[in-house]
User: What shape does this take?
Amino acid sequence: MNDKKLWRSWALLPILSLVAIAHTESNPTFSRVLLADPPSGGQPSVALESNHGFVVTWQSTQQEVTSLNWLALDFDGVPTGRGVIAKGSNWFVNWADTPALAVLDNGDWVAFWLQGNDPAMPEGYDIRMVRSTDRGDTWSSPISPHRDGTKTQHGFVSMVADGDDRILMAWLDGRRAAAATTDHAESISHDHESAPMTLRSAVIDGANQIVDEAEIDTRTCSCCQTDMARWGRRTLVVYRDRTDDEIRDISIAMRSHTEWDSSKTLHADGWKIDGCPVNGPAIAVSGSKGLVFWPTLVNEQMTLRYVLAESPAALLGDPPMHELRPPAAPSGRVDAAVWHDSFLLTWISRARDRPAIELAVLNADGGAETSIPIAEPALRGRATGFPRVASDGKRALVVWPELGGDGRPVIGAALLR
Assistant: This one.
């Protein structure tokens, strides 16, 4: 059956209270993009493919075999191709630590998943990366961007193109726990109390060779998402840090050429928590502007904050902090993308006592205009996952996990333009 016949788009619905950013003649609208037989599974992600559209990935499991799948959509939300990247029976499948795909400067696709490295170590898993030079038709043999060989955690990956056929990957790395623990599975946990979690990176070239490795931070929060963005010739990474006093605020580090500068705290939120909140930051760059968006706890309430800057140096300085004040209490799980000459922000809220996927657009002055919810998935708790957004500045695609009409976990999507 023709893929186009499987898809339908609901009537365009106005996003209330949003302002167009530098394009006041065309207020943003969104449409739900639905499959008559929607992709079954979870842990979705989405990447922009310039001049083509978007590439959505997700995982599905059948009879203990998990597959990482892809679906390409044009800028109108029409499918143009789909396939399977890889499959296996020993994968680490988690609601918060999820696979993704990136499109490189030369057009290559790079994708990764997480794979268990020892049945006796449930929290020990490796990053497995593959490359396609033909837009998903075929894939290379998998490699790992790390080569420590420890049966510990390697996850919460962020990726960004690094010029031509190169990919820069950053991840949380638990290798220091290997020297501080016994061989018993219970000694390795997400908290990694036996040794600090670290933030590491590596560059992989077109031959899938590791050409650069670095340790960015020697002690980080153990299970919060990381994010990266290129800004001119520099790359910035944001993540949740961790002090000896259990302050877990957002830190940022900058890479110039092949070296990472020392990281610094983005804003002194002072969030003290004895466990990982599983709630990381997002970063995006729009022309001459950069943004970091993150959740934190203020007076026992989850709060959404962001900073804007006109240069990497200013972002690493002390840029003014803004708070987003949505009508419904936020849960966090944020993402961000370029929108015209400013930014789109997404997050999960608890609207009407159920999760909702929310959206805001920043105006020219840096203020946020919030919308009605994009969707209210019939899922609760961890099952709502982490909505993800990709944008070329004029069109964006948001994806999230939800329940289909028959109660199956499926992938939801909304096209914004």
Observations:
- The longest strand covers residues 210-220.
- Residues 1-27, 182-192 have pLDDT under 50 and may be disordered.
